[in-house]
Amino acid sequence: MRRQTDDELLTKRETAAELKVSRRTIDYWTAGPTPRLPYVKFGNEKRFVRGDLRRFIEKHKVHVRQEAA
User: Fold this and answer.
1) What is the pTM of this model?
2) Which of 52, 51, 14, 21 is nearest to 35 (CA)?
3) In this structure, what is the dihedral angle of CA atoms 10, 14, 20, 24, given to the nearest 10 degrees?
4) How far apart are CA 6 and CA 28, in angstroms?
């Protein structure tokens, strides 16, 4: 099995699978002048850095406040 590294480049399909969203959602997150999800562009193709996905997930994590018992 191949070892995953933070600098590994992923395709849109791999990124969608990693984030458990549709490829259409990936398109939406990378559209416009200020995309929500960072990517690297090679011609017409977009690639996604695995480490950026980890940071994207952490940035969007909702932290729940613990109530006192």
Assistant:
1) 0.81
2) 52
3) 90
4) 23
Q: How many residues does the chain have?
A: 69
Distance CA(26)–CA(21), nearest Å, equals 7
Please list the pLDDT of the chain residue by residue as tens digits (69 residues): 567 787 899 999 999 999 999 999 999 999 999 999 999 999 999 999 999 999 999 999 998 888 876
Look up tokens 């929500």; give the residue.
36
Choose among 49, 59, 56: nearest CA to 4: 49
Token duo for residue 47: 């690639």
| Residue at 31: amino acid letter | A
